[in-house]
Amino acid sequence: MPVSLEAPDFWDPIALDNELRRVFDICQGCRICFKLCPSFERFFAYIDEQDGEVGRLEPAQINNIIDLCYQCKLCYPICPYIPPHRWEVDYPRLMLRAKALHIKEHGWPYRQRIISNPELLGKWGSKTAPLSNWLNSIAWNRQVMHAVIGIHRERILPQYHRETFVKWFKKRKGLKVKGRGNRKVALFYTCFVNYHAPEIGRAAVEVLEHNGIEVSCPEQVCCGMPYLDSGAVGPALKNINFNLKSLTGAIAQGHDLIALGPTCCYMLKKEYPFLLPGEDSSTVSAHTYDICEYLMVKLQKEQQLNTRFPQSLGHIAYHFPCHLKVLNIGYKSRDLLQLVPATQIKTIERCSGMDGTWGMKKEYHRLSLEIAQPLIKEIKDSAFDLVVTDCSLSALQIQQLIGSKPIHPIQALHKAYGL
Questions:
Q1: Which of 300, 315, 342 is the last residue of a domain?
Q2: What is the DSSP letter of 233?
Q3: Tens-digit pLDDT profile for residues 204-258
Q4: Rounded to whole angstroms, how far apart are CA atoms 92 and 254?
Q5: Residue 254: left if φ>0, alpha if ψ -120 to 50, beta else—which one?
């Protein structure tokens, strides 16, 4: 298995360099991930310049390879050498280890501290909305953000909402629905939904209750992925510990966990058990579902899903996000929407190139847009009535490039129900 956080070698720079070169040597002999992401493209270009000699890669070249890994994790489904293979190639976690060691040795840059903390930004932005949204639309302020924080001045930013999803949910005063078979779920609603897209959370609650499911929202903080993207393992572990304590409490009360974003779902199911192995993380992993997965596996499979849809959805261009793909749960969102009569779906399996805060950074903004071009072309060629994606940040990228905002599958289902 990849070296755990507790292992002394995890923080050993010599051991890290040896492991990087070992994995690079295996990858350059395989190359199945060629053009999968900028990190692999740059790596293969560098190694070809060195006539295939991994030992001749310069430290600056290795650092560039690491920086260009934006943790899409698309190498997992196709790499033949991931654990439990004896070669134990785990490229994304190796890049995480490299970034973590870099922060330990060189410090955590101020701008990374800011953009890696969506809770802080969300609380400030929501409390000051609509002023915060106005400021984010002003050219001089965007120039300042570009220079100081490193968010590209042309990047469309998500809107803040004064009434967050949590505020809306609490205003309902604990409205409950007695579920069929006493089904109860706890929402991991995500930072993005809470501060930027509360309409997704509202749609999720109303669809679940429409299907007779009791919904609760346990106390929670950011899943920790933005911290991990920059290599800040310590703050990520603090968030993970908090969430594990809260979420295991909900599970003990008979709730399954439903995540409203693929990245957060991936964190709960895959990264929590790796980063903090133990009974709590294993329990959370085993009880976590993507929301469309839950509706298909828990309800439709047992013929308990309400399939009375008074409204059709027409032609849908459905973007299948990277982190949903690597969860290996199948096309549950597509399958769910196909239950709606007179609905045609074109599934598009292309990376949006957004990948958390990576696509917002001024260094990678242009490259991010280039990566998204195949996705955008397929969307434009699909003659769609609706564009749908499970990933809110992919939706932001698509909005940037086609001018209209996609919706979440649960919003599409909400529309089909006529709610």
A1: 300
A2: H
A3: 999 999 999 999 999 999 999 999 999 999 999 999 999 999 999 999 999 999 9
A4: 34
A5: left
The SS3 of residue 163 is coil
Is residue 86 included in any domain, yes or no?
yes
The closest alpha carbon to 315, from 343, 355, 289, belongs to 343
Q: If residue 317 lies in a helix (H) or strand (E), which one and from where to where? A: strand 314-319
Parallel, antiparallel or unpaired: strands 314-319 and 386-389: parallel
Q: CA 93 → CA 4, 97, 152, 242, distances in Å? A: 10, 6, 27, 22
218 with 270, same domain? yes
For 164-217, the DSSP string reads: -HHHHHHHTTS-----GGG-EEEEE--HHHHHT-HHHHHHHHHHHHHTT-EEE-
Cα(202)–Cα(165) distance, rounded to whole angstroms? 7
Q: How many domains would you assign to the chain?
A: 4
Token output for 268: 């709960």
- Domain contains 158: no
Regarding pTM above 0.90, the answer is yes
Structure tokens that stand for 186 in this block: 């706890």
